[in-house]
Amino acid sequence: MATNQEDVKLLGATVSPFVCRVKIALKLKEIEYKYVEQKLGNKSEELIKYNPVYKKVPVFIHNDKPISESLVILEYIDEIWKQNPILPNDSYQRSQARFWSKFIDDKIVGASFKTVFTIDEKEREKHIEEATEALHILENEVKGKYFGGEEINFVDITAVFIAYWIPLVYDITNLKLFSEEKYPKLYNWSQEFLNHPIVKESLPPRVPLVAFFKARYEGFLAASK
Amino acid sequence: MATNQEDVKLLGATVSPFVCRVKIALKLKEIEYKYVEQKLGNKSEELIKYNPVYKKVPVFIHNDKPISESLVILEYIDEIWKQNPILPNDSYQRSQARFWSKFIDDKIVGASFKTVFTIDEKEREKHIEEATEALHILENEVKGKYFGGEEINFVDITAVFIAYWIPLVYDITNLKLFSEEKYPKLYNWSQEFLNHPIVKESLPPRVPLVAFFKARYEGFLAASK
């Protein structure tokens, strides 16, 4: 258990779903930590020092040793602090949790972002199709209350992107990528998940989040003209 | 330890670097297994049954329970069979091994393939630049005999792609993406690694591998005309 608050630090950005994953994990484990918000587009010396390869958030720093990549950070946190496990105990179940988290990152995150940030209409249609197909595959994987069963786990935390960030696509472009009608089980999961007290406290406020992405989208459109 | 050979099965394809990773891990652990070669472009019922999401090799099947994604398989194998560990024992070192393996997959594998299978010359230049930059970053990470120190580990096994598959780019397109002059440390590592007895026994023979990718490349060029 971290007793010295100075030992645990997170370099983050409020708008990032990847940072939010780490926040949820730390709250779940009841780890106190120092949070340092990074300015986007203006890389701090600390960020460059601790994540020289990508210069991106999140960076998790434990006793001055930095770790990047949100899923790698979650694995580390789960190994170091044993309370309220994130990964299942059984090795096969762990492999499946890793598989589905990777699936969300590889097949859903990128395609969903691109349904907003793509100019070419044909290309955009392709990304909509990709994201839709991947969400359908995941829909069939919802079996219990959470992906983790009765408790949230690695896949639930990864999927915060689906529950909270994908609905923003509608606010920005009017495209209903994620809806109750299309994905009833995934939608129910998202409602349960977003109402989990730990998750609720870890989410960035919605209004400024929408404003941030709307501004990004408008900037993107202006630059593409 | 797997005592019954029937319990451990690998669906693979000789030409796949991802399958080769699993083969190296299984040989390192001295696990006996049944290997079933898959015909590319002609998905077997077994492949579709055991990897319905991607329908791709490798699929590792342990007591009828399938796992896909080579790095997920390596983690599983390392958890189930403790002898000759693949991941470091220390959690921070484990996180770094995971980070660099993910780096290889995200930044080197795709870009390297695309230096061959891209028609547009500008696009191709971009992929060459990406792969070159990523290899330079990795060059600075070579510190001991192997990435794992005195023994091969998770990163070395992931990087079999660099040691054995990237040099094929030269055979196919005459582009020297990976050379001793440009990456002396990475090149020395590759020679040590390829001469490791476990690795040596796990690699597919080079001549048919070159022939396979040459034929693919010619097919690709013909289809792009």
Automatic annotation (TrEMBL), chains A, B:
Superkingdom, natural source: Eukaryota
EC number: 2.5.1.18
Residue ranges of every copy of the GST N-terminal domain listed in the record: 6-85
InterPro entries documented for this protein: Glutathione-S-Trfase_C-like, Glutathione-S-Trfase_C_sf, Glutathione_S-Trfase, Glutathione_S-Trfase_N, GST_C, GST_C_Tau, Omega/Tau-like, Thioredoxin-like_sf
Top EC group: transferase
Protein's organism: Trifolium subterraneum (Subterranean clover)
CDD domains linked to this entry: GST_C_Tau (cd03185), GST_N_Tau (cd03058)
CC per GO annotation: cytoplasm
Reactions that this protein is recorded to catalyse: RX + glutathione = an S-substituted glutathione + a halide anion + H(+)
GO biological process, one term: glutathione metabolic process
Positions of the GST C-terminal domain: 90-217
Protein name in the entry: glutathione transferase
The family this protein is said to belong to: Belongs to the GST superfamily. Tau family.
Gene3D superfamilies the record matches: 1.20.1050.10, Glutaredoxin
Keywords linked to the UniProt accession: Transferase
Molecular function GO terms recorded: glutathione transferase activity
